[in-house]
């Protein structure tokens, strides 16, 4: 609207308002200007109280706008796997709406395992549409904390152990979300790699490890993804809580990376007024509202960034400079989300979203082992299928903490299999063990009655007899979303499968050697029976379409193409954090003694053979790699180098392979990992087809973080480009130099 028209409308409206007994002409925002000016315009019209109000919550998931100026409230939602159910204003319990059942997308672990940037984009766009439809303008996700230990209860919400892979997958997710006028809030910044003592633990990590392992995905999210928001984590770093951490928020995020977005606290993560004012935090959520451990209700005025902050300003003890900065950033977010006239309207719980989730699930499922080609299930010769295990029937979208969902529906693996093959083969089910019979979170109930009166011995006996009579046994087990499994708030107690599943698997395979173990989890588990069991599938938490996607892979409608995004160690001490460290720490101190050597970097260094390696994943077809070539022998500092390799599908089925590029620095002044992932491409190949895969890198792929210089350094010298089908299956390599 032009200024003159605006004033005319304002005057007209003002006179209308005065008819109703008001005499002030309303103030209007001039929206004809560029973003920066509009922000300043709005800021200049706000009172001190209105500014303070914007910086903290008014309910569990919302913060005030400025009603007088027509600036809407901000509404947040978890994230990251679907749009959380509506909760009551000041309580965690669900509000009881009947129109908030969402699409449950696969967990981010599964998304990352697709190694397909298009899938991340599809995911982001789909969940962004759901958030938009539900009128949320901030999605609390995605999470990119690095998989440091297989015991971290929240690994399922993240994208694995590799900083490059996480960075590549998070960027399209964010762009997908944000194209809907919804801000992505990347979490949890930073070093939130365990749940034990998460509110109090102080993480000690050297700068190199921080910059090379724990920060790159956040940096990519901010700089390449353009994330509009970031969430501070609960833990401490250098003795300061991360939600108001001078080093992370001011020095790195704002100064080094130039982040202009909003820093949002994790719920209840603010502990210090002075630091909250000065160290780069913008919005405070979850403090003192009975969310975590304390119990004052409707205490939003008591938040650090509420009355206490206002009081300091009024007493002249702090100025308003920091406050204005915070409000500027929040206004910017509002202008780009709720006040963006061009944003679409969104859509919710649609068939398209269910199918998007299914596609992602199909591409993320990982075939870990397939001896004697036990999979896909051959329906020509299979008359009877025994399905065993609690996870074949248990709903996994309810539970696990803040990512818990009220899903419109969830297809269980058993139902998926019945639907797909029930008319061709007999399916017999036995639960085999009782794990977690509960199924509720904040008032959302799974509705399943999993109560079981029979003894463990009876259940086991039934499973064995069912297995004996079948042509093939599909054991669907793993972890679940209850405490000390894949769940927020606590870590796992060990690497072993819970509920005596190992014993059951070993007994079953004695009576029927055609056994496939499907591991439903977001974490690695130990598999002491790995040599006895021919088929192993990593089935993740797959959301709404879980059972359908799994069935398609098991029968071969879909040829698996997922690859692991973290290492499965044989035993806990094969993981650096456990071999060298004291995970989860003592006296609230946790030191990352393994340094850079996380995941495959540790396995490589110690020459440990993992149970399953990072990047591993089989297919129902086979691929042959040609010899990798480089387009030049020598690279100069501002140059790029491209590696080309031919990949052929040598089997009888169409399939897709993830071609991985690792770089080795042959000689360097500082110790470096044996190799590091620096590129990948997922390539679809028809049976018999050959394609050339090209991966281009620049010197950033050769660099390490020199902590003395506090800079990324690429040292001239000899390097090798390794092309592999996993981190332990290198097919071909080529040497090159950096000048
Ligand atoms: C979690 C966040 C989540 C927030 C709001 C916290 O407990 O750490 O990831 O977004 O709650 O539910």
TrEMBL record:
Residues annotated as signal peptide: 1-21
A Pfam entry, by short name: Glyco_hydro_3_C
Record-linked InterPro entries: Cellulose_deg_GH3, Fn3-like, GH, Glyco_hydro_3_AS, Glyco_hydro_3_C, Glyco_hydro_3_C_sf, Glyco_hydro_3_N, Glyco_hydro_3_N_sf
Domain of life: Bacteria
Keyword Nucleus: no
Database matches in PANTHER family: BETA-GLUCOSIDASE
Name this polypeptide is given: Glycosyl hydrolase
Species of the source: Solitalea longa
């Amino acid at each position: 609207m032009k200024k003159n028209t605006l004033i005319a409308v304002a005057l007209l409206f003002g006179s209308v308002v005065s008819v109703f007994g008001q005499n002030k002409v309303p103030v209007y925002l001039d929206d004809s200007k560029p973003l920066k000016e509009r922000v300043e315009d709005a800021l200049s019209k706000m009172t001190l109280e209105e500014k303070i109000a914007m910086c903290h919550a008014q309910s569990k998931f919302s913060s005030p706008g400025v009603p007088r100026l027509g600036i809407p409230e901000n509404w947040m939602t978890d994230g990251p796997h679907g749009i959380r159910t509506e909760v009551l204003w000041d309580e965690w319990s669900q509000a009881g709406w009947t129109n908030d059942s969402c699409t449950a997308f696969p967990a981010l672990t599964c998304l990352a395992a697709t190694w397909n940037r298009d899938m991340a984009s599809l995911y982001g766009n789909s969940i962004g549409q759901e958030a938009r439809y539900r009128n949320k303008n901030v999605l609390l996700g995605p999470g990119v904390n690095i998989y440091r230990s297989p015991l971290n209860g929240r690994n399922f919400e993240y994208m694995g152990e590799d900083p490059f892979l996480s960075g590549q997958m998070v960027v399209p997710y964010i762009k997908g979300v944000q194209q809907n006028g919804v801000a992505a809030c990347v979490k949890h910044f930073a070093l939130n790699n365990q749940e034990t003592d998460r509110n109090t633990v102080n993480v000690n990590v050297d700068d190199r490890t921080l910059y090379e392992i724990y920060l790159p995905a956040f940096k990519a999210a901010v700089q390449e993804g353009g994330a509009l928001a970031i969430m501070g984590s609960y833990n401490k770093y250098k003795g300061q809580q991360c939600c108001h951490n001078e080093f992370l928020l001011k020095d790195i995020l704002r100064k080094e990376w130039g982040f202009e977005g909003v820093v949002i606290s994790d719920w209840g993560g603010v502990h210090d007024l002075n630091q909250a004012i000065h160290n780069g935090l913008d919005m405070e959520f979850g403090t003192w509202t009975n969310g975590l451990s304390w119990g004052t209700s409707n205490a939003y005025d008591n938040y650090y960034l509420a009355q206490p902050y206002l009081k300091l300003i009024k007493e002249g003890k702090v100025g308003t400079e920091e406050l204005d900065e915070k409000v500027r950033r929040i206004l910017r977010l509002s202008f780009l989300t709720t006040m963006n006239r061009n944003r679409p309207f969104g859509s919710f719980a649609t068939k398209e979203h269910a199918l998007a989730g299914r596609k992602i699930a199909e591409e993320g499922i990982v075939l870990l082992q397939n001896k004697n080609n036990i999979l896909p299930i051959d329906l020509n010769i299979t008359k009877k299928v025994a399905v065993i295990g609690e996870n074949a029937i248990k709903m996994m979208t309810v539970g696990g903490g803040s990512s818990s969902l009220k899903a419109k529906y969830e297809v269980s693996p058993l139902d998926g299999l019945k639907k797909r093959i029930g008319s061709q083969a007999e399916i017999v089910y036995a639960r085999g063990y009782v794990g977690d019979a509960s199924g509720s979170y904040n008032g959302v109930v799974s509705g399943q009655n999993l109560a079981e009166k029979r003894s463990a011995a009876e259940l086991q006996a039934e499973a064995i007899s069912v297995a004996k009579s079948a042509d093939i046994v599909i054991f669907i087990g793993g972890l679940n979303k209850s405490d000390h499994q894949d769940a927020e708030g606590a870590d796992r107690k060990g690497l072993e499968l819970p509920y005596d599943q190992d014993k059951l698997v070993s007994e079953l395979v004695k009576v029927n050697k055609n056994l496939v173990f499907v591991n439903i989890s977001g974490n690695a588990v130990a598999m002491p029976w790995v040599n006895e069991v021919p088929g192993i599938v990593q089935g993740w938490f797959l959301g709404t379409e879980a059972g359908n996607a799994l069935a398609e892979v098991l029968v071969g409608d879909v040829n698996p193409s997922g690859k692991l995004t973290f290492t499965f160690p044989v035993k806990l001490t094969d993981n650096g954090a456990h071999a060298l460290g004291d995970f989860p720490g003592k006296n609230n101190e946790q030191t990352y003694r393994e340094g850079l050597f996380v995941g495959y970097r540790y396995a490589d260094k110690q020459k440990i053979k993992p149970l399953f390696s990072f990047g591993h994943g089989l297919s129902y077809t086979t691929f042959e790699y040609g010899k990798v070539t480089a387009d030049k022998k020598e690279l100069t500092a501002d140059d790029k180098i491209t590696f080309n390799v031919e990949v052929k599908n040598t089997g009888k089925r169409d399939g897709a392979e993830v071609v991985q590029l690792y770089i080795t620095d042959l000689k360097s002044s500082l110790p470096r990992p044996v190799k590091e992932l620096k590129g990948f491409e997922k390539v679809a190949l028809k049976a018999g087809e050959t394609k050339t895969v090209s991966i281009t890198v620049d010197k950033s792929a050769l660099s390490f973080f020199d902590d003395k210089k506090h800079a990324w350094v690429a040292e001239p010298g000899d390097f090798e480009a390794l092309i592999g089908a996993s981190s332990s299956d290198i097919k071909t390599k080529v040497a090159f130099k950096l000048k």
